[in-house]
Amino acid sequence: GEALAVSARVAPLGSRLVLLLVEDLTEARRIEAVRRDFVANVSHELKTPVGALSLLSEAVMDASDDPEAVSRFAGRMQIEATRLTNLVQELIDLSRVQNDDPLEDAEPVRVEELVAEAIDRSRHPASTKQITMASGGASGLYIWGNRGKLAAALGNLVENAVNYSPARTRVGISARRIAMPGTSGVTQPRGTAGLIEIAVTDQGIGISEKDRERIFERFYRVDPARSRATGGTGLGLAIVKHVAASHGGEVTVWSTEGQGSTFTLRLPEAGSTRDRASTGSDQA
Ligand code: ADP
Questions:
Q1: Ligand 1 center–CA 215 separation, angstroms
Q2: How remote is the CA of residue 221 from the centroid of ligand 1, in Å?
Q3: What atom in ligand 1 is closest to the CA of residue 216?
Q4: The predicted structure's pLDDT at residue 104
Q5: Which of 24, 39, 87, 109 is 20 to 30 A from residue 7's alpha carbon, by CA?
Q6: pLDDT tens by residue, 194-244
Q7: Which atom of ligand 1 is nearest to the CA of 200?
């Protein structure tokens, strides 16, 4: 009697185990496919500027008796070299955000500083296109996280807002604190008192619903030609998504085609005033 009861208990367990193994294999295969795609994409993205550089250097050699042509080709070589440098830098950034634990050296990060830095980073392309950048609400807010990675994430969103907007439009960056839903009155662990929301709004070309599902994938671009023209690599939003998720936050997008987009980061607030005091930069 007892043996039967035992095998009856083991049998469903066994089939569950088999099922788990099968699921595990499918997941392993999926990860392997993603890895293979990534390597293929990287190779393709590297080949494009390297191929261009090779052709251009041949053109320079052929045109050695025409100084004007030489300098024209040299100018284009410089553009391709910059593209290559950007791509390699973004690949390094992506591998960093994927592999390091950003909370290992987490600290309270002043949102005002992040916003000012992001605006600074896009100041040149924005002024070329006469795009005004305005910010508000950041004063006195702190995020619990890695300063460099948070700066990279917000910097990317502002850069995109400027890149994908026509001339003489506006880019707005607004920050606010929102309470964690359903936790009022509950003592929060260090660094999780609430959420800080930073929204980057543009009046640009917008993103269709179909594309909104894919823009956070590595190398996905709505319009590869346009993205390349602005020096884009297709890695920016993948980096933003990784930074947000690894901080225990998220990034979402809202957009109307032809009218503009809003990218919203939600990140954990640095909790107590003691957290903030430890930065030594609390003047608010
Ligand atoms: P890229 O280097 O091409 O900008 P990203 O990963 O930063 O790569 O963005 C992926 C794609 O999402 C872009 O190529 C662009 O098509 C689209 N996109 C990103 N931000 C915006 C925006 N603010 N407005 C419209 N399209 C955007």
A1: 7
A2: 6
A3: 6
A4: 85
A5: 24
A6: 999 999 999 999 999 999 999 999 989 998 877 777 778 889 999 999 999
A7: 23
The pTM is what? 0.80
* Ligand 1 center–CA 190 separation, angstroms: 35
Round to whole Å and give the CA distance between 263 and 178: 16
The verdict on the CB of residue 221 being under 6 Å from ligand 1 is yes
Residue 202 near ligand 1, beta carbon < 6 Å: yes
Q: What is the pLDDT of residue 231?
A: 72
Q: What mean pLDDT is reported for the chain?
A: 86
**13 — pLDDT class (breaks 50, 70, 90):** low
Burial of 106 (0-12, 13-18, 19+ CB in 10 A): buried
Give ipTM to 2 decimals: 0.98
Using the atom order of ligand 1, give the atom closest to the CA of residue 237. 6
So what's the pLDDT on residue 23? 75
Query: Residues 147-186: pLDDT tens digits?
Result: 999 999 999 999 999 999 999 999 999 999 998 765 555 4
SS3 of the chain? CHHHHHHHHHHHHHHHHHHHHHHHHHHHHHHHHHHHHHHHHHHHHHHHHHHHHHHHHHHHHHCCCCHHHHHHHHHHHHHHHHHHHHHHHHHHHHHHHHHCCCCCCCEEEEHHHHHHHHHHHCHHHHHHCCCEEEEECCCCCEEEECHHHHHHHHHHHHHHHHHCCCCCCEEEEEEEEEECCCCCCCCCCCCCCEEEEEEEECCCCCCCHHHHCCCCCCCCCCCHHHHHHCCCCCCHHHHHHHHHHHCCCEEEEEEECCCEEEEEEEEEECCCHHHHHCCCCCCC
CA of 275 to the centre of ligand 1 (A): 35
Closest-CA residue, ligand 1 atom 20, reads 160
